[in-house]
Specification:
559 residues; alpha/beta; Rossmann fold; GMP Synthetase, Chain A, domain 3; 3 domains; nine-stranded mixed β-sheet; five-stranded antiparallel β-sheet; 26 strands
Length: 559
């Protein structure tokens, strides 16, 4: 009798739960795949091109069918709501189908950097406890080279350029093209993004389903004025926050299209895609803009022609360029404007905030600055005591907005020190001018205190970058023989320039003539390249580590 009563009770409970669930669905249902994909179908955009690639184009109907079949194939593997699916994928249409297929079933996609080492992937797989890993075929050797144990990984899915490989291929072919979105809400976890590691080991930022909608409304529509007629091309890759917004969230939020490039974004390949697909909005990073300028300036010189943006040049379809990742040097802005006649909107975003929250905007650009707050975000700059500073005073930039990550996965202390209630501590040092524009002064851990005065590495770098012999540079603190910290510059020379002691002294004089005396670099080291994250950010912490190792070796030798 007890077992019968128990069954009746359970049945009644589930009936009540289903009734409650139906009521809640009407009020609270939100699934990001429904918003970014199905909503465009409902708006009659199904036959509109969503993705341009070298081999073929894909409509919104195509992406929907691919995502639905992928989601059903995931179900066939036993993947369910809240299961984590790691994505080690190139920029290809299958990235869309895997991401949205996972979101649609309530699973959690985690795109990761494609330029790491097998040890890094071992860490990420174990840290995230992902049950499945989807990997592009070309990247499979990186996974095969993992030597340690993968404690949680259950399924490895390999994606070829045109389709999935066996056995997932068979599941995908048999899968239904119809799939109802899992019941989720705006606050449910939608996806993770690992930080780029520009300031240390990657951290998993946990984002909710609604975060990409907020970022799209605030920046894509509020600043860029994106519409369904736009074609977006992002040299920044889909696996990190800046790229996934540029190349997927933003265009899909308005029914626009994106250009995907599977290859490394060299200047040659970027210009090829710009000329072939005629995008209207181009997203890059400062390093790439510098490389593209050097590439074109060299071509102009070889062809003995003067640059002109009055005709059908390489970017004639582009209405606006966007930069983020690190501060855009003023020199690059002016050279780009002179060569192509197009503005670059410099801004700052973060993995934790998902995308750009401070930016210059069309018709309101102050070269060298990061601009003003993006609509929908609040900013403040505080000192070491959490008190707001006055104009011109350097402090730490805090931001508040609804695209913020919920927390860092398994990093409670870091979550507490970074996510301060509604405010996010960016770790970036900033100041404002009298007109309210924000100016980057470097990372908090990059700032130097020379003779008791704060020195911004960015300011010194911007000065050196204006010298014609300098392609790019990075400035860090270095202890002199008295143990006092002074600026040291690592410089990459422009093509065709040979390093020499005379050039080093010339660069020092160049800086000394243009900066306060305490700011100029006491040491300049010419290097072939600078360490960078996958987003193109210069990793100054690696330069500092190099100096520490060098000092330790010297100390041991003298001892």
């Amino acid at each position: 009798m007890a077992s019968i009563l128990h069954c009746i009770t359970v049945e009644r409970y589930f009936n009540n739960y289903n009734m409650w669930g139906d009521q809640m669905k009407n009020q609270d249902f939100f699934n990001a795949a429904d918003y970014f994909l199905e909503r465009n179908i409902r708006r009659g955009k199904g036959t509109k091109t969503a993705i341009y690639t070298e081999k073929r184009n894909y409509t919104y109907n195509d992406i929907r069918e691919m995502a639905n079949k992928t989601g059903n194939a995931f179900h066939d593997l036993g993947l369910r709501i809240d299961d984590r699916i790691m994505m080690l994928m190139l920029d290809e249409p299958q990235f869309y189908s895997v991401f949205w297929g996972a979101v649609k079933i309530g699973a959690i996609p985690i795109p990761i950097n494609t330029m790491l080492t097998p040890d890094n992937y071992e860490y990420l797989l174990n840290d995230s406890r992902a049950k499945a890993l989807v990997v592009s075929e070309e990247l499979l050797p990186l996974v095969s080279a993992i030597k340690g144990d993968l404690f949680y990984l259950r399924d490895l899915i390999v994606i070829a350029e045109d389709e999935a490989l066996i056995p997932f291929k068979q599941k995908y072919k048999k899968a239904s093209p119809n799939l109802e979105a899992e019941y989720t809400t705006k606050d449910d976890v939608g996806f993770w993004l690992y930080s780029s590691g520009s300031t240390g080991p990657p951290k998993g930022a946990v984002h909710c389903q609604y975060s990409p909608v907020v970022a799209s409304e605030n920046f894509a529509k509020g600043v860029l004025g994106l519409t369904e007629d736009d074609i977006c091309f992002s040299a920044a890759r889909l696996f990190f926050a800046y790229g996934i917004g540029n190349g997927m969230f933003f265009p899909m939020s308005v029914g626009a299209a994106a250009v995907l490039n599977r290859d490394r974004p060299t200047p040659e390949r970027v210009f090829y895609h710009l000329e072939r697909f005629r995008p209207t909005v181009f997203f890059g990073v400062p390093t790439l803009y510098g490389q593209m300028l050097e590439y074109k300036e060299r071509q102009d010189k070889e062809e003995s022609r003067k640059p002109s943006f009055s005709g059908d040049h390489e970017l004639s379809s582009v209405r606006i360029c966007v930069s983020a990742g690190e501060a855009l040097p003023e020199d690059i802005y002016y050279r780009w404007k002179e060569r192509f006649g197009i503005d670059i909107l410099d801004g700052i975003g973060s993995t934790e905030m998902l995308h750009v929250f401070v930016s210059n905007r069309p018709g309101d650009i102050r070269p060298g600055s990061t601009g003003k707050a993006v609509p929908g975000y609040e900013l403040k700059i505080v000192d070491e005591n959490e008190q707001e500073v006055t104009d011109g005073e350097i402090g730490t930039l805090l931001v508040k907005g609804n695209s913020a990550a919920q927390h860092y996965w398994r990093k409670l202390e870091k979550t507490r020190t970074t996510m301060k209630g509604e405010w996010l501590d960016t770790g970036d040092k900033y100041y404002t001018d009298k007109d309210g524009y924000y100016w980057c002064a470097g990372r908090g851990d990059d700032m130097l205190k020379v003779g008791g005065i704060w020195v911004s590495p960015v300011e010194v770098e911007n000065c050196l970058n204006k010298h014609p012999a300098v392609l790019e540079c990075a400035v860090v603190g270095y202890a002199d023989h008295k143990g006092l910290i002074k600026p040291k510059a690592y410089v990459v020379l422009s093509k065709g320039i040979t390093g020499s002691a005379e050039l080093v002294e010339e660069l020092k004089r160049w800086a000394l003539d243009r900066l306060a005396k305490f700011k100029y670099p006491r040491w300049i080291e010419i290097v072939a390249e600078l360490p960078k994250s996958a987003t193109g950010k210069i990793q100054r912490f690696k330069l500092r580590e190099r100096e520490q190792e060098s000092n330790l070796a010297l100390s041991e030798k003298s001892g």
